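Training component of the fellowship. As part of building independent skills, the fellow (R.M.) carried out the full modelling exercise for a liganded target. The chosen ligand was S-adenosylmethionine. The inputs are recorded below so that the supervisory panel can assess the work.
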Amino acid sequence: MNERDSEIMGQMLCNADYSPTEDIHQADVIVINTCSIREKAEQKVYSLLGRLKKLKQKKPDLIISVAGCVAQQEGERLQARMPLVDIVLGPQQIYCLPELVSRAAQKGKPLMAVDLSPSFEIPRYIPPSPAISRQKDDRIASTLYFKKFVTIMQGCNNFCTYCVVPYTRGRETSRKPDDILAEIEALAEQGVKEITLLGQNVNSYGKYPADSRNYKSFPELLRKVAALENIKRIRFTTSHPKDLSPELIACFADVAKLCPHFHLPVQSGSNPVLKRMNRGYTVEEYLAKVDTLRQVKPDIALTTDIIVGFPGETDKDFQATMDLLETVRYHGAFSFKYSDRPQAKAVAFDNKVAEEVKSERLSCLQQKQNEISLQKNRGYEGSIQHIMVEGQSKNGDGQWSGRTMSNIIVNFEGPAALSAGQEVQVRITEGLLHSLRGVLSL
Ligand code: SAM
Ligand code: SF4
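Fellow's submitted model of the complex:
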């Protein structure tokens, strides 16, 4: 979500005649887009702002803006602590950035835009400026020109007890299906082939706002996107297990463009912990959905998010999470130590887990998951994978790099004439922990 928001802000500034620079000393405007999901992310923002103080002293006209969830959460506190910040704008307000930059340039007071409206609507479509669409390699975002994110909903109504998102991004609101399809069609015309549909809980797309009766459900929306001829690959993230419907699972059987990768955050393998997290499902319900997904699409790659050390998590609860890793055998897992977030209910929960216990559990879990991920990747050895080329491999060894349909990075040998966005077949020769190696298959 943040990456897409950064891209939108970049596009809007380009449309207002700014151009991107890789040299921070050349910048007239710096926008720091922030995440407050964990405490560490927030600390990083303050330390980056600390490092920008000298630059602002040398160049007083430089406009520094902090956007996103930390901005929403900290509001005036942020400007009080860091007076070098000219603009503070929350996630719903990013669309006002060019206007605020122009006001700040006229030497107004520090500007603050952190309203959260329950009836917020994502603007229709922010077209990329010609400067961006001409560029084959997009310097605004880290995404490549042929694969793009498209936001389909904003906010979240789930109120998991550890999570700050409902407070920083506001109530869940789906975008109108016609707006989404128009955006994807426009991207396809510019050569985009792969779309990732984005939202905090895409499975509940179409439920909110209250007047969304005529909206499509998420599976219906997926099928509409798949019908667009020039779109070759479709991905989505993130899904909430409680809202994963049989209709969505069925899409994996007959929507060929839907990539066989499902990120399905479980958070814990213990029912009492899931209950205190307010996740709305049990381990048994989660496993039943995983089984159905694998029946429908046996080669689907599953990934997840896990929190260790949630308040009250016992050794037995943690063992249940370790057991779940063995049962599901995910391709990969993002795992985090629980941290208190402002406004989230779990801040007030008893029995906080000691920091060293959290660290021990995290490293134990990551070690186990690494073993499983390596075994999963070795399972690809000898297979032929359909790859979309992303560019020269980062290793600088003249190899090419791309992703499998199941979203695993593949570095492979191939002729110099290949180009980004091209689709090729690669025979996998080696499975590593985080990637695969292969050779172009004729
Ligand atoms: N909406 C998605 C979901 O329901 O899974 C993802 C939300 S969040 C951006 C990404 C991940 O951050 C969560 O799945 C969770 O594992 C982790 N997370 C959120 N709040 C956390 C906290 N207070 N401490 C540690 N990890 C947290
Ligand atoms: Fe946070 Fe839960 Fe919403 Fe995900 S579903 S954004 S974890 S409140």
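The panel noted the following from the submitted structure. The longest helix spans residues 355-378. The pocket of S-adenosylmethionine (ligand 1) is lined by residues 37-38, 162-163, 200-201, 238, 240, 265, 267, 305, 307, 336, 338-339, 341 (CB under 6 Å).
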